[in-house]
Amino acid sequence: MKKIVVMLCVLLFCTSAFGAEYPELGVCTGDNVRLREDPGTDGKIIGRADTGTRFVILSEAYVDGQKWYEIDNPKDKGHAFIIARYVNYGWYHGNNGVIPTGKDFVEVRLAFGIYQEKARTLLGEGKKDEFGNLVYSGCTLRYDDEAVPTIHQAEITKRGYAIAGVQVGDNMRKLLQLGMPEDYLNDFIEIQKGNAINTDDDGVVDGPEGWTYESASGESIFFQFGVGQKGESIVDMIIWSRPLGEG
Hints:
single chain, alpha+beta, about 30% strand, disordered N terminus
């Protein structure tokens, strides 16, 4: 029992001292690094990662004095373990330090995968458009043009895909929990009812059409507004975008 308490204290200290809050983003810093089914060198090898391979870190474990990260397998089903000495924690803009990105944003990578291979294991084969993006019913996943493309945008137009706990068709009031100003919500409702109208210099209607939720790192989720079947204000499109220059 004493050993367990000591380990818990060590883990709590590491978490508070270095800001390690999972899930978080990580990147591999070595080539041909083994991914294992369980932590420790006795764990079954289920894959490998090279320098620059990106993944979501889920937790950490210690075996024989060595630290291991449990990660969402970057290109295959399920989870895997990778030894910590080959992991850079936090990879926004190539930064070598710790940059917590926020639970809602990291979970986008868990929902759709960072790479196309992972997206296919989660959502099915999908269709490829002329730009090499994956298209599903109500969901388009867009990728950058790097040698190994990673996701940079997800556009959702149908219910069934949650981002930051919100789905298409949800009442717009749900965005208040993400910090949307209530007066902005009320402005849209008034314009929707026809009780208020804003025009620009050309006389074109210029009312609230959407709201963007941003992280400190520059990642954003845009919620477009619409009107539901019962006349209520709803979210009718969601676009998640990663920061420019992330990598």
